Amino acid sequence: MPDVKHFDPDTVLEAVVRLFWRKGAASTGIQDIVTATGLNRSSLYATFGGKQDLYRAALRRYIEHHSQPAFGRLAADRRGLPAITEFFAELIRVRCSGEYAQWGCMVANAYAGADNDDPQIRGILERHHQQLRDAMHAALVTAGGRRPAPGVDFGAAADVLALLAYGVNLRSRAGADAQELGKTVTAALESIGARAAA
User: Fold this and answer.
1) Helices (H) and strands (E) in the chain, counts
2) Distance between alpha carbon 118 and the CA centroid of its chain, in Å?
3) What are phi and psi of 155, to 5 degrees?
4) For the chain, how far is it from start to end, CA to CA, in angstroms?
5) DSSP class of 89
6) ∠ at Cα 172 (99, 35), nearest 5°?
7) 181 vs 171: CA distance, rounded Å
8) pLDDT tens sequence across 91-111
9) How many angstroms separate the CA atoms of 70 and 91, rounded?
10) What does the alpha-carbon distance between residue 13 and residue 28 come to, in Å, rounded to a whole number?
11) Tell me: the pLDDT tens digits for 119-156?
């Protein structure tokens, strides 16, 4: 007779996402996961594999539920630079206030952590970066509203904006002030032709 799970793997994975996001993979032990989920080790291993497997699954879930919806909205928004300004304003708001304040971004945290030597983790991070960069690029290229200044290289501008997003995430985790982050974003956007405040 097959073993019947008495827990929802989706709910457990969400709890693990929050744990890894807040503490980082290197600082999270298996006992932390057991405590956070209420499951024993054998149930965790049987369902998700080892800690590294669980971390990969959590990172994928974070991207699917937190990153990709924001990237999709940005890429589909035809307002141009105001859409990018709004993206950053929301990013700063979420990173500096509310439930997830000073947690940073799970992906940016993974870049800064020790676990990014795993080839599968590197692949997940690279795909995330490409999706972020592509969303920035789409917002610049398909703009029906304000566009970058003449002569701005859309590809290079998208690269700069993607790196700026990682910077906001990392600085907010360290407790950076939302207003200061907003000033930095405004300066970067003005350099490619934006005139709206972040």
Assistant:
1) 10, 0
2) 18
3) -65, -50
4) 59
5) H
6) 45
7) 8
8) 999 999 999 999 999 999 999
9) 9
10) 14
11) 999 999 999 999 999 999 999 988 766 666 777 888 99
User: Facing residues of 80 across strands?
Assistant: 146
How far apart are alpha carbons 17 and 107 in whole angstroms? 11
Tokens (6 digits) for 78: 């035809």
Percent of the chain scoring above 70 in pLDDT: 91
Strand spans (E) along the chain: none
CATH of domain 9-191: 1.10.357.10
DSSP state of 174: T
Quote the CA–CA distance of 104 and 118 in Å, as a whole number.
21
Cα–Cα distance for residue pair 106/24, rounded to 1 Å: 8
Each residue's pLDDT tens digit, 53-93: 999 999 999 999 999 999 999 999 989 889 999 999 999 99
* Cβ neighbours of residue 38 closer than 8 Å, sequence gap 6 or more: 7
Query: Residue 114 carries which DSSP code?
Result: G
Domain boundaries, the chain: 9-191
Structure tokens that stand for 30 in this block:
């298996």
Distance CA 104, CA 127 (A): 19
Instruction: Confirm if 142 and 65 have CB atoms less than 8 A apart.
Output: no
